[in-house]
Design brief:
By secondary structure, the chain is mostly helical. The chain has 5 helices and no strands.
């Protein structure tokens, strides 16, 4: 009979990837900066700020970009524009952040595996 007490005592946070969390937080920071730029730009082409996420969140960004390119920005500004502001914000905020957590977790695992192999 094996002793499972060590498994039960582990925190649920022990399975969370620090590297993945760092990547996800960096994504959220870039997203927040982009939102700040959009809200303070005063430009009529403010929706162009989302283009950076086409490359940054690729390939998951393909789910949002075609929609924003089909509809012109609202003349009332970003806060009144569901298609060009709220949809990309929610999509990149959720899907993009999860994507970067997964990428970071994978990279962290590869680095950890490489470091373990070198120390052996």
């Amino acid at each position: 009979m094996s002793d499972d007490s060590s498994d039960r005592q582990k925190s649920p946070w022990s399975r969370v990837s620090r590297t993945g969390g760092t990547f996800a937080l960096a994504h959220i920071a870039l997203l927040a900066h982009t939102v700040w730029l959009i809200l303070h730009s005063g430009e009529s082409k403010w929706s162009g700020y989302w283009i950076i996420f086409l490359a940054f969140d690729f390939p998951v960004s393909l789910g949002v970009m075609p929609v924003t390119w089909l509809v012109p920005p609202s003349p009332s500004g970003p806060l009144a524009d569901v298609t060009n502001f709220w949809w990309p914000l929610l999509y990149h905020g959720l899907i993009g952040t999860v994507w970067w957590y997964i990428v970071g977790k994978f990279i962290g695992a590869k680095i950890e595996g490489t470091m373990r192999a070198r120390s052996s």
